[in-house]
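User: Run a structure prediction on this.
Assistant: Running it now.
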Amino acid sequence: MLLLSTLQRALPAFAAAAIALAFSGTLVLANVDLDRMERLALGRHGPNTADTVARWRSLIDEISALSDVEKVERVNNFFNTLVRWRQDIEVWGRNDYWATPLELMARREGDCEDFSIAKYMTLLLAGIEVEQMRITYVKAQISGDARNATQAHMVLAYYPTPAAEPLILDNMVSEVRPASRRPDLRPVFGFNSQGLWVGAAAAPATRDPGARLSRWHDLLQRIAADGLG
C-alpha cells in the first residue's frame, strides 16, 4: 500500500481516484446487452442518443474483423469526432464525475477520463485484449507556455505486444501516434484490470495492491444498469 499512498499524495484527486478504480473491480463485460442499452438511450435521452448508440454498435460490428491497429484508429476517431471536451463541473456540476459510455454519448461532452474509459470499453467489445491496453495518466506539456508548465491528463495506450512501443489515443490529438511522437506527454502511471505500471516501466509495480472502492464502484453499477455489466 506504500506505492498507492505515495502516488495518491503526488497526484491530483482525480488521478488518485483512478488508482482505486483500477483494482476495486475488473472491467469484464460478461453480461453485455446492447439492445437494452439502445432502449435506455431512447427512453432516457431521446431519439438522437438512440441513433448515436446505434451508430456506435454498428462501428463495433464493422471493425470486428479488422486489425487491432485499425480498430484503435476507428474508435479513437469516433469519440474524438463525437464528443467535445469540457470539464466535469461544466457538464455535470461536479468537480469529478466518471461518465458511462452511454452518458458520454448522450451529452457528447466530457473530460479526458470519459474519453479514455469509453475508448477502452469499446475496444474490449471489439475484441482487443485487456492486457494490450492501459488507461494512462500523464503530465502533458502546455503548448506555448514559456514556463514549460504541465497539466494532468489521461490517455489510452495500446500495446501491440507486451514489449512494443504503445500507440496513444488522445482526445487532444486526432491522430493515433506512437509514444515516441508524443514528447509532450510524460507517463506517470498506467493501469488496467490486471496491474499498475509506474512511469514507462515494462513490468507492473504491483498486481494486487488490495481492492478499494471509489468512484469505480459507482461507475460499475451504472455501467451494468446501462447494459454493459
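The CA atoms of residues 77 and 172 lie 11 Å apart.
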